[in-house]
C-alpha cells in the first residue's frame, strides 16, 4: 500500500505507542527483577538503581529452589511435545491425503477436542488419573498436555502436508519407493518448517500451562508456573523473586516463538489463512 | 470400510487417533456419567447414582446463571476489544516502511507469555502501593485498587487478556493486509478514494475471511482459558469476575461437588462445540477440509 500522502510522522508515533503498550509491562518486569527490594517497594517508580542478582540467587537457594520445578516443566512439556509432533506428523499426513466422505466429520472431531474448555476436561481426567495413579506424575501431565497438543499438531501438520506438491511423492514412487519410504525420505523432510513450528508451539502451550498443572500435580511434579503461583501468599508477595521467576519462565518461550515467526500465522490459525 | 486392510492413510492416522480417542472419548463418557452421579472422593472414588439431581439443581441455580452472564460479558468485551485494537495495530504496522519486521516481532511478544505470568505481572503493575500503572493512574486522578472494585476488577482482567492476545489478531490481520493486491488499492486512490473509503470498500472486503478466522481462533481460546482470572481475582470481588470456568473449578475442587460441576462442564462443552462448528464451516469454503 504505497501512499504518497502518508503522514509518516503520525504513523511513526502511533507505531511507537503500540510498542510501548506491548513492551512496557515486559520491560518493567525484567528491570524490576534486577532491582534491590527497597527499590521495588516505592510508591513512585524507581528509575535509577544499583542492579543486583539477589532475586535470581534466591530462586536457586535453599528455601525457594526452583530447579526441581524447572526439571518437571522441561520433562512434561518436552515429552508431550515430542509425542505430539511424532503422532501429529503421521496423523497429519494421513488426514491430508485421506479422501473419504466422512473426512469432514473426522476433521471436526479432531478440532473439537482441541477446543474443549480446559475446566471441563480437567474434571473427568482428574477422576481417571486418580484411578490410574497418574496424579502427581510426569506421565499424567504429559498425557494432559497431549490432550490439547495432539489435535493441534494433527491439524497443523495436515495443513503443511497439503502444501507439498503431489508430484514429489509420485516421482519417488516411480523411482521404486514404497509409500512409507516416499513419506519418510521425501515428503517428511520437505515439511521441516512445519515440524519445527508445530514443536515450538506445542512446547509453548504446555510450558505455559497452569490449569492442568495445578489440578494434577503434587509435590513431585510441580512445574514452573506452579512455583510462580506459590510465591503469592497471604503474608504478601516477594515481588523481586516473582519478577525474576517470571523472567525465567517467559524469556525462553519468547525466543522460541520468535524463531518460528515466519510460520506463526499458519501455526496459530492451524493453516486456515494460508493459500489466501 | 470396504477393504479388510485399512488404507495407508488410515494406518498413518491410527496411532494418533487411538491416543486422541482415549484422551477425549473416555473422559467425555466419564463426564456424562459424572453428571448423573454424586462423586465421592474419600476412600477411593465412588459414583452414587443421582439420577437427574445435578441437572435439576442447574435450573434453580441463580449463581451459575449469573456466571454465564459474566462469561458472556467477558467474552463479548474481550473479543470486541481485541478485534478492534488488533485491526488498528495491524493497519498502523502495515503503514510503517522502515524496520517493519522488527516492529512486528516486538509487538507479538506478549502472546508467548504464560497467562499466569501475565496475571501476576498485572497484579504487580496495578498494586496500589508499588505498581507502575497504579502510579500512572494516580497521576491521572484515579485512586484506589483496581482489582478491588467490581467494575474495575472485571475491566482489569479483560485488559490483561486483551494485552496478551491483541497481538495475535494484529499478526493475522497483518498477513491478510499483505495479501491485498496493491493495484487494487492504487486504482482506488487514482479514482479519488480517501484512506477510510479505501479501507471500507477495498481492503475490508478482501480480508473479511482472515478477520473471521482470527475472531474464531480467539473465541475458542477465550472459552478455554481461565488462568489469568484464577491468579488475579479468583472470581472476586463479590463474584464480579466469576466467569463460568472459574465457577466450575470452584464447584468441583473447593466444594467437592464434582457431579454438579460436570453438568456445568457439559454446557461449556456444548458451547465450544458450536464455536468449533462455526470455525470449520468458515474453513470449509477453502481450507483444511478441502
Automatic annotation (TrEMBL), chain A:
Gene3D superfamilies: MetI-like (1.10.3720.10)
Membrane recorded as keyword: yes
Membrane-crossing residue ranges in chain numbering: 7-31, 74-95, 107-129, 141-162, 183-207, 239-260
Organism this protein belongs to: Pendulispora brunnea
InterPro entries given in the database record: BP-dep_ABC_trans_perm, MetI-like, MetI-like_sf
Principal localisation: membrane
The keyword Zinc is assigned to this record: no
Protein name as catalogued: Maltose/maltodextrin transport system permease protein MalG
Pfam families per record: BPD_transp_1
Family: Belongs to the binding-protein-dependent transport system permease family. MalFG subfamily.
Subcellular localization(s) per the UniProt record: Cell membrane
Keyword list, A-Z: Cell membrane, Membrane, Sugar transport, Transmembrane, Transmembrane helix, Transport
Function, in words: Part of the ABC transporter complex MalEFGK involved in maltose/maltodextrin import. Probably responsible for the translocation of the substrate across the membrane.
Residues annotated as domain ABC transmembrane type-1: 70-260
Topology term for the membrane: Multi-pass membrane protein
UniProtKB/TrEMBL annotation, chain B:
Membrane topology (UniProt): Multi-pass membrane protein
UniProt xrefs under PROSITE patterns: ABC_TM1
The ABC transmembrane type-1 domain, residue ranges: 68-279
CDD domains in the record: TM_PBP2
UniProt keywords, alphabetically: Membrane, Transmembrane, Transmembrane helix, Transport
Localization of this protein: Cell membrane
A Pfam family hit: BPD_transp_1
Transmembrane segments: 12-36, 72-93, 102-125, 168-189, 258-280
Record InterPro entries: MetI-like (IPR000515), MetI-like_sf (IPR035906), Sugar_ABC_transporter (IPR052730)
Coiled coil: none
Family listed: Belongs to the binding-protein-dependent transport system permease family.
Protein name listed in UniProt: Sugar ABC transporter permease
Organism of origin: Pendulispora brunnea
